[in-house]
Specification:
The chain is mainly alpha-helical. It is built from 19 helices and 4 strands.
Length: 520
């Protein structure tokens, strides 16, 4: 006769097998969506299969119930690339079948995703909109509209194009935030499942990018194969953080080591200085969330994995490593002054990043003259290069017409873009969407670790810890595209809901402890 211990053990094995099977199926689905979305337009047969398969997904997202439609929409959005490919030998732009690149006449690609989000909001019927979100909805609908008209943002060359791009920031961010916040409240039991689908989609995208890099096949950006034709490439940091946490807890050691090394290799190969700085910032925050004993393990582990990843990259792709080294030197201001420095007395900041340095000076100068520092220049608002003219060697950073007019609509950093469009007040309000959930969940995570409180699901707790560390960098690297804003909406909603779960779980635990004391 089986004992209770045997039955419990069999149930645990069955549950573990069932979970791994579901995770495997989700990964395979995400991997398939990556292959469908990556189908290039210059391959008619492959492209037709990709478009046909994704159109079927669109229909399913519309007709399926929320429990299945929202995860499918999220995975479809995460696996699709949103930057066009440039051919190596000719200046032709090659699109792919991704949801972020599919056009229907004059309809922009991001509108398709936004329309699918609206369909899910209609299915939800009753929406959960918190007071901070209501305040920001009111802000986006009034202040930048008024300031945009006041400072000429709705007039002149490119005004309507820039207004639409500026509107996308608030629409995609808040629509995604409302969708996922309401979804978690309406279907709380699907919270873990949706985030697992999110993680598997990221893992599938990482795997496909790693395969492209390994076989030197992936999409081209100019003449470099950086497999980074995606505005959400920064999410590789989240996978790296989760891998480091699991290693520090000695869980899933083999798979976590592999994910960590691949993440480091791709992070270096992406050749983006901002991501490297985001990684350092995220690691510092991550170590602040862990126990003191784990900090040493994480620090040493990060160094070892980083060195190993850089070594493998040097051995396997030395030409890529040479480009990375040359790129990293600019962080020390080591670049050719006559080619890249802004047209004023040379200084350290101008040498490190002449584009962003000149943007900061010009935006403050333009906003100060207009008196728009507090509320911003609004939708379509532009800044002038009267203070520091941008050198012609940096013309690729902006539309050609901007240089002719001396008017620039978009800077290249989160803080300056929001400050330029929404002013100091808007910067504080908008940043609070990330800041408030971050401090709430960070407080809980530190309390759980410092007091050694019981954790129901170690892997999921590690995922949420990684999301918390990534949340601060998510502002900096995922603000400028519809895809990035959708991910931000999910992460903010997940952190808020997870704090509610923690408050419920540990308040119940405290009540149980008190009742036991009273009984004794």
């Amino acid at each position: 006769m089986p004992t209770d211990l045997m039955v419990a053990s069999l149930n645990r094995v069955g549950l573990r097998f069932d979970t791994r099977l579901k995770n495997g199926l989700l990964f395979l689905l995400a991997f398939l969506l990556c292959l469908l979305g990556d189908a290039p337009s210059n391959n008619p047969i492959y492209y037709s299969i990709g478009v046909g398969g994704l159109l079927v997904c669109y229909i399913l997202i519309v007709v399926l119930p929320l429990r299945m439609a929202v995860p499918l929409l999220l995975m479809l959005a995460l696996t699709g690339r949103d930057i066009f490919t440039t051919s190596l030998y000719q200046e032709t732009v090659i699109s792919c079948a991704s949801i972020w690149q599919m056009r229907f006449g004059f309809i922009r690609p991001s509108w398709v995703t936004f329309a699918l989000i609206l369909v899910q909001l209609i299915k939800l019927r009753v929406l959960y909109i918190s007071k901070p979100v209501k305040l920001l909805l009111l802000w986006f609908a009034t202040v930048p509209v008024v300031t945009g008209w006041l400072y000429g943002g709705f007039e002149g060359y490119g005004a309507m194009t820039e207004v639409i791009i500026d509107l996308k920031f608030g629409l995609m961010l808040l629509a995604s935030l409302v969708l996922f916040s309401t979804y978690f409240r309406r279907l709380p039991l699907q919270f873990n499942s949706l985030l697992i689908a999110f993680y598997q989609a990221l893992l599938a995208r990482l795997t496909v990018n790693a395969i492209y890099f390994l076989f030197d096949y992936g999409p081209l950006l100019g003449s470099a194969n950086r497999v980074s034709l995606d505005s959400a490439k920064g999410v590789v940091l989240l996978l790296l953080f989760v891998a480091i946490i699991l290693l520090s807890m000695r869980r899933r050691v083999l798979s976590s080591t592999l994910i960590g090394i691949v993440s480091i290799i791709l992070l270096i190969a992406y050749n983006t200085r901002m991501l490297w700085l985001d990684c350092i910032l995220g690691l510092i925050i991550l170590m602040a969330l862990l126990r003191k004993r784990q900090v040493v393990v994480v620090a040493l582990g990060s160094v070892v994995v980083g060195i190993l990843g850089a070594f493998l990259l040097q051995v396997y792709r030395p030409q890529t490593m040479e480009t990375v080294v040359a790129r990293s030197r600019t962080l020390l201001g080591q670049r050719l002054q006559h080619n890249y420095s802004v047209q004023m007395q040379a200084n350290y900041l101008g040498a490190v990043d002449p584009v962003r340095y000149a943007e900061v000076v010009n935006i403050f100068d333009t906003s100060w003259r207009r008196g728009s520092l507090l509320l911003g220049n609004g939708y379509g608002g532009f800044f002038e290069d009267a203070m520091i003219p941008f050198p012609q060697s940096l013309r690729s950073s902006y539309p050609k017409k901007s240089f002719q007019l001396g008017k620039f609509y978009q800077p290249h950093s989160y803080i300056m873009r929001v400050l330029h469009k929404h002013g100091i007040v808007g910067l504080i309000l908008i940043s609070s969407l990330w800041g408030v959930p971050f401090f709430r969940i960070a407080k809980w995570i530190r309390r759980i670790r410092s007091q050694a409180l019981p954790i129901v699901n170690t892997w999921f707790f590690s995922l949420m810890t990684g999301i918390t560390a990534f949340l601060s960098t998510g502002i900096l690297s995922l603000y400028w595209s519809g895809k990035g804003l959708m991910i931000n909406g999910l992460l903010i909603a997940a952190c808020v809901f997870y704090v509610m779960k923690l408050e419920g779980e540990y308040s119940s635990l405290a009540q149980v402890d008190v009742s036991r004391v009273n009984e004794e």
